Amino acid sequence: MELEKHHTPLKILLADDDPDDRYFFEEALKDFLQPTDLTVVNDGEQLIRQLTDETNMLPDILFLDLNMPRKNGFECLSEIKQNPRLKELPVIIYSTTFHKKIADILYKNGATYYISKPFEISLLKKAVQKMLTYIEEENISQPDIENFLVTTEKNNSKTFFWFNSFFSIPFTESFK
Question: pLDDT higher for 176 or 120?
Answer without folding.
Answer: 120
